[in-house]
């Protein structure tokens, strides 16, 4: 782990974000099954959908098969003679029968959590069970009434090219790109011949590879660069905003960070300066707040530009899970780390030599060269013997022992032995693990599922 703040601008070739609903909408509105509701929010890879209806039967959420399949990068075929529907993604297929809990996954019979429902010419399927069959994650948040769907694709390498696999290691998009990057909000940045564009979850080119640099979609637009000029495009590649500043950054919370000379501010989607250029340093909005530097100190502003947490800290980092990591001033210039809440209160005292943002309800901290993890009350939830450890993702955190890396769970149990020279944190079910010059994708059991391209190391 490092305390060096990542670049303000989200790195080039990190996964793109865009409106996957554009593709899904082509299936049209489906009729509802019993107990259907239209007031739930459906989010696909972080993008809220419109025109969807869900159904709940005996506590199981069902969705119309066509738009659901499209959302996870799968296709649907109806066999009129057999009255069966087959959902296919890469080499995986599930054959579904009408009004039945029995399905066939890659030739093997499986039992679904709920029977499919045929109503008004539409087949409704248990979303979580069908999603799991393809490695997708489907989760219901009762508090926000949101159904979240994540396809969980990952770049892999084969014969010098890159494509995408699911969490089982099945190829879902063939390896035909010079560079492939993580999916986010339905699209991914891919590179060919030194230029970059965007593809969807079926591998369809949505925006051609014409840019010298490409960045994440956010708030429906993406920052790109072509012929030395930076500007914002929509999900069809149309230029929507070309503001004139020395440096442009991604949108977050409805605002984009911009820089002119040595000052930072924020513009809205019309290009108007919503928050004037006045900060010595500034960062993205997260949880409705952004860290900024005023007179050499860091604090936080809200989306109106109002300073809501005074600039009194040596450093301040993004708000995550309701807490902002801050570094208090120290007599030796090496201040201690603690956590402020949205009210500006130092909820967890600044008494740690190292501190990192909250992830999955825990924050990694270190004193005397040994890592432990705090819960949201500031209590030590887990103590380790390790001098290097990472954040928790997918229930696992990496650790280093005797120069090798492995993973522990939230009880401190070693789940994946330390056998790798380096690793990256788990994300969407898989993690990158490197030994020598070989890079692999491993699952949460430590099983290698695919080859991967080793990340470039800066000289």
Automatic annotation (TrEMBL):
Keywords: Signal
Keyword Cell cycle recorded: no
SUPFAM superfamilies associated with the record: Cell wall binding repeat, Copper amine oxidase, domain N
Domain Copper amine oxidase-like N-terminal: 58-149
Signal peptide (UniProt feature, chain positions): 1-35
InterPro entries, alphabetized: Cu_amine_oxidase-like_N (IPR012854), Mao_N_sf (IPR036582), WG_beta_rep (IPR032774)
Keyword Transcription regulation (UniProt): no
Entry-linked PANTHER family: DUF3298 DOMAIN-CONTAINING PROTEIN (PTHR37841:SF1), GLR2918 PROTEIN (PTHR37841)
Protein name, per record: WG repeat protein
């Amino acid at each position: 782990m490092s305390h060096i703040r990542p670049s303000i601008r989200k790195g080039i070739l990190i996964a793109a974000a865009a409106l996957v609903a554009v593709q899904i909408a082509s299936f049209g509105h489906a009729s509802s099954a019993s107990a259907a509701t239209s007031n739930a929010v459906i989010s696909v890879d972080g993008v809220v959908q419109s025109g969807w209806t869900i159904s709940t039967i005996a506590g199981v959420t069902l969705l119309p098969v066509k738009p659901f399949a499209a959302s996870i990068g799968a296709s649907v075929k109806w066999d009129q003679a057999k009255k069966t529907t087959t959902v296919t993604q890469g080499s995986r297929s599930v054959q579904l029968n009408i009004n039945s809990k029995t399905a066939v996954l890659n030739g093997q019979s499986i039992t679904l959590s709920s029977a499919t429902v045929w109503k008004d010419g539409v087949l409704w399927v248990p979303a979580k069970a069908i999603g799991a069959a393809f490695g997708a994650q489907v989760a219901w948040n009762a508090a926000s009434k949101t159904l979240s769907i994540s396809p969980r694709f990952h770049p892999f390498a084969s014969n010098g090219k890159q494509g995408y696999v699911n969490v089982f290691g099945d190829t879902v998009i063939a390896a035909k790109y010079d560079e492939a990057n993580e999916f986010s909000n339905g699209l991914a940045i891919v590179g060919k011949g030194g230029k970059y564009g965007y593809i969807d979850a079926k591998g369809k080119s949505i925006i051609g590879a014409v840019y010298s640099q490409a960045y994440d979609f956010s708030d429906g637009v993406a920052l790109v660069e072509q012929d030395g000029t930076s500007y914002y495009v929509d999900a069809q590649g149309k230029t929507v905003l070309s503001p004139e500043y020395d440096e442009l950054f991604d949108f977050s919370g409805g605002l984009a960070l911009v820089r002119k000379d040595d000052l930072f501010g924020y513009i809205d989607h019309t290009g108007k300066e919503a928050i004037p250029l006045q900060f010595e340093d500034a960062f993205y909005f997260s949880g409705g707040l952004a860290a900024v530097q005023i007179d050499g100190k860091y604090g936080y502003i809200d989306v109106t530009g109002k300073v809501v947490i005074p600039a009194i800290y040596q450093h301040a980092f993004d708000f995550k899970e309701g807490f902002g990591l801050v570094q208090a001033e120290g007599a030796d210039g090496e201040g201690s780390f603690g956590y402020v809440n949205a009210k500006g209160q130092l909820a967890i005292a600044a008494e740690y030599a190292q501190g990192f943002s909250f992830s999955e309800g825990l924050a990694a901290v270190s004193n005397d060269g040994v890592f432990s993890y705090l819960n949201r009350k500031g209590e030590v939830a887990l103590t380790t013997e390790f001098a290097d450890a990472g954040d928790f993702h997918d229930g696992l955190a990496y650790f280093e022992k005797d120069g090798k890396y492995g993973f522990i769970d939230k009880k401190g149990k070693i789940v994946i032995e330390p056998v790798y020279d380096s690793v990256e944190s788990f994300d969407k079910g898989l993690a990158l693990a490197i030994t020598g010059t070989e890079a692999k994708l491993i699952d949460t059991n430590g099983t290698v599922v695919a080859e991967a391209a080793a990340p470039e190391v800066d000289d």
